[in-house]
Amino acid sequence: MTVIVRDLRPDVRADAEGFSDTRRLALPYMLSTPESVVHTLTHVHPDAHFGQLIAEEDGEIIGTAQVSVAHDSPEPGQGSANIYVRPDRRNRGAGSLLLRTAQERLGRLGVTKLFAWVLDEPDNRAFAERHGFRASRSAWFLRLDLAGGTLPPRQEPPSGVELRTAADFADDPRPVFELDAATSSDEPSDIDVEFTDYEAWLEEHWKHPLLNRDLTTVALVDGRPAAFSVAYTDGDSRYATAMTGTAREFRGRGLAKLAKNDSLHRARTAGCTEAFTGNDTGNEPMIAINKWFGYEICAKEVRYVRELG
Ligand SMILES: CC(C)(COP(=O)(O)OP(=O)(O)OC[C@H]1O[C@@H](n2cnc3c(N)ncnc32)[C@H](O)[C@@H]1OP(=O)(O)O)[C@@H](O)C(=O)NCCC(=O)NCCS
After folding, report:
1. pLDDT > 90 fraction of the chain, expressed in percent and rounded
2. pTM of the model
3. Ligand 1 pocket check: which of 184, 244, 261 to mutate, most ligand atoms within 8 Å of Cβ?
4. Mean of the pLDDT values across residues 13-24?
5. 170 alpha carbon – ligand 1 mean position (Å)
6. Is ligand 1 within 6 A of the CB of residue 139?
7. Where's the N-acetyltransferase domain (predicted)?
């Protein structure tokens, strides 16, 4: 039985299904569908050189890698390779082969510092360390039971604040882009992000198949978007927050809580039964907000880094 690694073929449905099935089994706290897999591959900015690798054994997809150059970071030479092997198909060489292929590809593209998310389990961490990586920041995955749990009651927006959905911006999403760009750069991370390309954002984020515009809430202050909470859904009762952010000048007024609470209530009404979110372990305000909603930590991921070349 031989494991091979190859690129996902976006026009082959079985590739996209095998990729998203593997991701869901290995990482059940993140949403993935065949449509989102193909969308990401075909819509990420060309400068990211984004690739999705598949490890296959006797025709069965058993591992995946997402490989990219951090083109939207102000620091050049950074890239990432996030590798997930099906839990029931480990120790067959898939992870090592995916990593080697990813490193060779990114090395040729000038990447000298490689980041990889690793689920905090002894085998995974030992794998990363054997391959020359050292641990860096970490992040929690959190889960909220929307079906059985209780949400804080809906709040009445304070005077001057109105709640809208992303669907209300369908004709002109630029204000949502501006808020996303202003807040994403403040999210704690190993790789600083700066996004300025509206057309690329429309393609990659606004048209993302998991984005649920009706469940995404935007809080306006005096008519201006000030805070938002971005909802992803997979059509199968699972909801995930892709981003919550408040523009700097509006922080500390309860607007992130207000926007996310509205989104969660909408999600529950729409039939979503569980909600996921992920936070850098140092993001104290966001963790405080999520605990207030009743989210519970369900897993931890550690960002590993190694120098290439
Ligand atoms: C995190 C963020 C969304 C918070 O927005 P906000 O509108 O200021 O949040 P709110 O006012 O609704 O609530 C903040 C809560 O965090 C608490 N908080 C603030 N700083 C804190 C800290 N250092 N430790 C613990 N709790 C803290 C506040 O006390 C408040 O809780 P309270 O209402 O019980 O007092 C905002 O800082 C942001 O946009 N950051 C950058 C983007 C980001 O990191 N997003 C999260 C991605 S996962």
Report:
1. 91
2. 0.93
3. 244
4. 98
5. 28
6. no
7. 3-158, 161-309
State which H helix or E strand residue 162 sits in. strand 161-165
- Confidence band, pLDDT 50/70/90 cuts, at residue 192: confident
85-92: long-range contacts at Cβ-Cβ below 8 A with a sequence spacing of 24 or more? 85/22, 85/26, 85/55, 86/22, 86/25, 86/26, 86/62, 87/25, 87/26, 88/25, 89/57, 89/60, 89/62, 89/63, 90/123, 92/1, 92/3, 92/57, 92/62
Q: Is the pLDDT of residue 295 over 90?
A: yes
CATH 3.40.630.30 placement within the chain = 3-111, 144-300
Residue whose Cα lies nearest atom 13 of ligand 1: it is 254
Q: Which amino acid is it at 202?
A: L
Nearest alpha carbon, ligand 1 atom 23: 284
Beta carbon of 187 within 6 Å of any ligand 1 atom: yes
Nearest atom in ligand 1 to the alpha carbon of residue 292 is 34
pLDDT digits (tens, 9 = 90+) for 239-259: 999 999 999 999 999 999 999
- CATH number for the region 3-111 comes to 3.40.630.30
Closest ligand 1 atom to the C-alpha of 186? 41
C-beta separation of 118 from 300 below 8 A: no
Note the CATH number of domain 144-300.
Answer: 3.40.630.30
Which of the listed residues 230, 232, 289, 297 should we mutate to test ligand 1's pocket, taking the one with most ligand atoms within 8 A of CB? 289
Per-residue pLDDT averaged across 18-46, rounded? 96
Q: What pLDDT, on the 0 to 100 scale, is given for residue 185?
A: 87
